[in-house]
Structure formats: C-alpha cells, structure tokens
Write a structure and sequence with these properties.
Main location: membrane
Subcellular location: Membrane
Shape: elongated
Distance between the termini: 88 Å
Strand content: 5-15%
Strand order of the largest sheet: 4-3-5-6-7
Radius of gyration: 31 Å
Keywords: Membrane, Transmembrane, Transmembrane helix
Protein name: SulP family inorganic anion transporter
Membrane topology: Multi-pass membrane protein
Largest sheet: 5 strands, mixed
Length: about 550
C-alpha cells in the first residue's frame, strides 16, 4: 500500500506542477513590467532558480520566483543608472541577483535564520491576509482593462476607481466568467485543475475568435530559447554602487520567504529549517544572476497557488521548471495569445483565498490584542508595502512583548486558611505571609524599564512602620537576568532596607541569576547566606531570623 500512496503523491505533485505553470508563467511575465526587463527574463526566473532552490532549500512548499516587491526595489534604483531594458541595465539587474546570492550565503554562514523566529503565528496570519488584499487589488486593473501606473496599493485603488469609466466591457465580462468558473469549480470539483483548463481554453478562444481585436489585451510576442549562462559585465565602481539596493533586496528576500515558508509549514505541520532555506535562496539567486534574469524571492502568492493546486513537495516546482523549459523551446508562440485578464482573474481567486477569516476570528476570540496586531500587519502590507509591513509587524510584536515585561505581574504569596497552601494576591500593605515575613514574586526579568516597579512595590510594603516586616522573601523563579541599570536600583534599595532593619532573602535563584547578582555586586549587599536555590529554604531562613531573640 505504501508504494501506491507514494506514486499517487508524485502524480498529484506533477499535476499540481502543470497547473502551477499554467497560472504562474503568465504571472512572471507580468512581473517583467515592474522590473522593466524583457518578457522572456520572467520565464528565466522559473527555470534554473526553481531547480536550484529545490536542490538546496528545505521548504516543501515555497515557490521561489520573480516577485513584485524585489522587482519594484531594484527597478526604481537602477533606472537612474542605466536605460531600462538596455543591455547595461540588464547586466546591472543580474549583478544585483549575484550580489544578493553572496549576501544570502553570508547570512547562512552566520545562521541568521533565527530572525524568522520573530514572526509569530499572529503576524503570519496578518501578513498573508495583507498580501492577499494587496494582490487582489492589483489584479483588478487587468480584470477591468484599465491602465494603472502607481506601485503603491492605495494609489492603485485610487487610480482604478477614478478610471472606472474607461473600463473595457468584454474584458470585464471575461474576467467575471473566469472567476465564477474557478470559484464554483472549487466547490463542485476541487480536484479538477481549473486554472490549467481556463488558461488552455482562453488561449484557444483567443486564437479562434481574435479576442485582441475585440479590445481584450493579450500578453504579446515572447522571445524563444534557453538562457545563456554568463557573468554580467559590470565595473567595480558600479558593483559598489549596487550594494545599498542589494541590501534592501536581501532583507525583503529573507523576511518574506521566511514568513511564507513558515505560514505553509504550520498549515501542514512540517518542520522548518530557515537556514537551509536561506542557502536555497542563495543558490536560486546565483542561478538567476548567471542566467541573465533578476532577483528571485519566496513568493506568498505563487506558493499559495502551488498549495491550492495540490502541491506537497518540490516535485511540483521541478515540474513547473520542466514546463517552462518546454514553453521556452516550443510554445512561446501560442502563449502570446493568452488574455491578461484571464491571468489576473486566476491570481485574484488565489489572493482572496489567502485571507483566512477563520484564523483571524479564532485569534480575536482568544486574544483581541493579538488580533489587533494581525490587522495592523495586514493594513501595513496593503498601505505601505510587503517589506515595510513585515518589519513593522516584527517591531509591533517586540513592542508588545516589551510592554508586558515593562508592566509584569507582581504578587504577594500568602497561606490560604483552608488549604494551607500559598496563594497569590495583589500587592498591598498590611498583609503578611507569616508573622514578620512577606513573600513577594516578580514575574519578569529585571531591566532598566521595569526595575522601578520592583523598587516601588518593595518600598510600599515596608512604608507603614507598624506593619513593617522583618524579612522580605523574593520568589525569583521568574527572574533569570538583571541588567546594569536594574542592578544599580536594587543595590540602592537593599542598602536602604538594611538600614531600616529589614532583611532581604532571595529564593529559587537559578545559576544564571546568581551569576548576575555576583557580577553586579548585589550579593555582598544582601549577603551570600541570603541567596537560596529553593523557596522553602529561603522561607525557613526567614522564620529563623524572625524567631531569633533580640540582641541583649
């Protein structure tokens, strides 16, 4: 039975690769308009780079190909260095890809894949939703037959609305028909490769009925033949000038690829190896630069297309590369008749599917604050861009975490009269854990932003002279680190308490915390005998101090 299942899986991936090629080959041709490169270079991005990532990368789902984010970054910068579309411009673009490969290799050597750990599931849900909305809005221009020049999504929407009177009726009707067929077919026949069927059918219809003559735009002529491997002819000074734009591209490549691979790995419960994926991305960009095309990236839209088509391994991407080679050699003629609105309609349905409303609702039910973070991520991706949206999402996640650390939970632990167990209660004066003893817990590491919370809590507990405890036991189970600023505040606090006759005892001190206390000179202030690895020994020491007879 196992070989049969394996064979069915391979067959499923091959069929998914065919369907993926039908959707993505026209799409990567469209990306060349953003990159300001010849149309055939879009096909080059899904030939050798796909094979290189499949050989060196770890993700089973990530599709590495042309992407609008990186294309927009380098095209705007390189357009000032050379005439777009010229041989010199193409050499500069290919060199950016080769430099990106070098930077990514360095990132792999330094194991920078850990940066992806800052992308929480909440951020990934918002990121995918934002990309889905962004792509869906971008596709409406071709679905309506409207010419839109803006790159920003908000400006694209504004231009589309203002130019609605110029929409092309036949284009709109064909687009609505394609969307209806695909969305209905997904419900009634989910295993049927409808995108492939619609692409082939639309090419036949375009050739038979001259759709271009009825105002429906088509892709147009494409150069045939395989790419030639060569190093781009770029001077040393030009290479140095390319470093800033290359750095921007690399940040986007790492962040967007990691976000996409993790999102789909979590969906299918697959292991994640971000460092191996970075190596695969380096190999893919090296292949892109040597084959005369532009930087490639892990594409969320194309990966979603692959998954929707049924792809579960990189065999689908290898099939995609094989189909691309056949197209380059034999089928560039028929492909020129493909209507642009058909491609846009297929991508539109995929983009809508990337907005996971159920996941967003589940986040809202469990944590409204994190749902707000997901929505903020989605809004940032739509309004200011994919790369900025990712970095803003990471910043917001870190800010939310720091905010929790800045305002940690603090409590007193007191014995329950019925159970006799220690139970938490709010920090308040006049309450003692045992006669003369207070047990205080601070639930975070101590650093410059929250150390005054610790200081103010302790001072409030010893302020009333009539209820001042003899000993305060600090349950340090949640404290693993003390920074320089917090240590200074604590030394001043403990020195003042000693002058008041109040003893401070630490319990549940880990070796890491003890090392910090020794290094920051806190141990001499409170005494090494008052630092305990267990809480019960700390409490016993406090009881001995309270019960000790006063000096004669």
């Amino acid at each position: 039975m196992e070989p049969d299942r394996s064979m069915r899986g391979r067959l499923r991936d091959i069929v998914a690769g065919l369907s993926l090629a039908s959707m993505n080959i026209p799409q990567v041709l469209g990306y060349t308009r953003i990159a300001r490169m010849p149309a055939v270079t879009g096909l080059y991005t899904v030939l050798l780079p796909l094979i290189a990532f499949a050989g060196f990368g770890a993700s089973r789902h990530l599709v590495v190909a042309a992407d609008s984010a990186t294309a927009a970054i380098f095209s705007s910068a390189l357009g000032r260095m050379a005439v777009p579309g010229s041989a010199h411009y193409m050499a500069l673009v290919s060199m950016v890809a080769l430099l990106s490969a070098g930077f990514l290799l360095v990132a792999r050597l330094f194991r920078l894949g850990f940066l992806a750990d800052f992308l929480s599931r909440t951020v990934l849900v918002g990121f995918m939703a934002g990309v889905g909305v962004q792509v869906a809005l971008a596709m409406t221009r071709d679905m309506l037959g409207i010419d839109v020049t803006a790159h920003n999504t908000v400006l694209q929407l504004f231009q589309t609305v203002t130019r609605l009177p110029r929409l092309n009726g036949p284009t709109l009707l064909l687009s609505v028909g394609i969307v209806a067929v695909i969305m209905t077919g997904e419900r009634l026949a989910p295993r049927l490769p409808l995108p492939l069927v619609t692409v082939v059918g639309s090419i036949i219809a375009s050739m038979a009925f001259d759709l271009a003559g009825h105002g429906i735009a088509t892709i147009g002529p494409i150069e045939s033949g395989l790419p030639r491997l060569r190093l781009p002819d770029v001077s040393w000074n030009e290479m140095l000038a390319l470093l800033p734009v290359t750095t921007s591209c690399v940040f986007v490549i790492i962040a967007q690829s990691a976000a996409t691979s993790r999102a789909f790995a979590q969906r299918f419960h697959d292991p994640v190896n971000d460092n191996a994926d970075i190596l695969g991305l380096a190999a893919a960009n090296a292949a892109a630069g040597l084959s005369g095309t532009f930087s490639v990236n892990g594409s969320p839209t194309q990966t979603a297309m692959a998954v929707q088509a049924g792809a579960r391994t990189q065999l689908a991407q290898l099939t995609f590369a094989g189909v691309t080679m056949i197209v380059l050699l034999f089928l560039t003629g028929p492909l020129q008749y493909l209507p642009r609105c058909v491609l846009a309609s297929i991508v539109f349905t995929v983009a809508i599917g990337m907005v996971n409303g159920r996941a967003m609702l589940a986040i809202y039910r469990e944590s409204p604050g994190e749902c707000g973070l997901a929505l903020a991520t989605a809004a940032a991706v739509v309004s200011i861009g994919v790369e900025q949206g990712i970095f803003l999402a990471i910043a917001l996640s870190l800010f939310r975490h720091v905010r929790h650390s800045y305002e940690p939970h603090t409590m007193l632990l007191c014995y329950d009269t019925h159970s006799g167990l220690l139970e938490p209660q709010p920090v308040s004066t006049g309450v003692q854990t045992a006669p003369g003893v207070l047990l205080y817990r601070f639930c975070a590491d101590l650093f410059y932003a929250n150390s005054m919370r610790f200081v103010s809590d302790i001072r409030s507990l010893v302020a009333p002279a009539r209820t001042q405890p003899d000993c305060i036991v600090v349950d340090a189970s949640a404290i693993t680190d003390i920074d320089f600023s917090a240590a200074s505040d604590l030394r001043d606090l403990f020195t003042g308490l000693r002058q008041q006759g109040v003893r401070i005892i630490f319990g549940r001190v880990t070796p890491y915390l003890r090392a910090d206390m020794d290094r920051h000179r806190i141990t001499p202030v409170i005494g090494a005998e008052n630092i305990h690895a267990q809480l019960h020994t700390a409490m016993a020491a406090a009881q001995r101090i309270v019960n000790m007879p006063p000096p004669a």
